[in-house]
Amino acid sequence: EAQVTQNPRYLITVTGKKLTVTCSQNMNHEYMSWYRQDPGLGLRQIYYSMNVEVTDKGDVPEGYKVSRKEKRNFPLILESPSPNQTSLYFCASRGTGRTGELFFGEGSRLTVL
Amino acid sequence: AQTVTQSQPEMSVQEAETVTLSCTYDTSENNYYLFWYKQPPSRQMILVIRQEAYKQQNATENRFSVNFQKAAKSFSLKISDSQLGDTAMYFCAFGNAGNMLTFGGGTRLMVKP
Predict the structure, then answer these.
(1) B105–A contact, CB cutoff 8 A
(2) Alpha-carbon distance B31 to nearest alpha carbon in chain A (angstroms)
(3) Average pLDDT over all residues of chain B
(4) Which of A95, B17, B30, B76 gives 20 to 30 Å between its CA and that of B52?
(5) Calpha distance A91→B2 (Å, rounded)
(6) A5 to chain B: which residues are within 8 Å by CB?
(7) Which residues contact A37 (CB under 8 A, 6 or more apart)?
(8) How do residues B63-107 score in pLDDT, each as one tens digit?
């Protein structure tokens, strides 16, 4: 089954404790992206990657890091989480072609105390 | 930078009736793509419909259709014969050649029996 898998789905952590949200897709997609969803603001892009070893900043990259060492994986790293990073996070992937459908993971609810 | 505005934070409609969700966007680009995504209570993001800006014909997918007005930068979604399962958050999104996808703030739609 074609899917984007994120882990963990739910996480409560404390300020400053490094965490990683993993994302993996099994569709051999070149393009992968991270979004955060906040009430009234919709989804805002954090980082995206056009292919292995190629990453670019989105609209709200501050406080986040990503890496793309393998095509299927695109982890989101919060080196020193802060309460304003409490949000719902989505990973998404897309195949070649700009009109290709974005496939989303099921979301990761992160709370930073 | 592109902006996407959904001016209706919440809407409701009676089952079997028709509802239109509004979306406007601002861009200086000529080639782009527009999308409507649905997010039911499960949080999963589901593509409802997409429109290429170079196509004059409005996209249609079963009960879902769009009214794309390029000059006015408007991209509304019409849901005909509303069903209880259409209850969800709906996001309008703009995609450009740079592979950024910009989302509106969302419209929460409630279908009433």
Answers:
(1) yes
(2) 11
(3) 93
(4) B17
(5) 21
(6) none
(7) A43, A44, A87, A88, A89, A90, A107
(8) 999 999 999 999 999 999 999 999 999 999 998 766 678 899 999
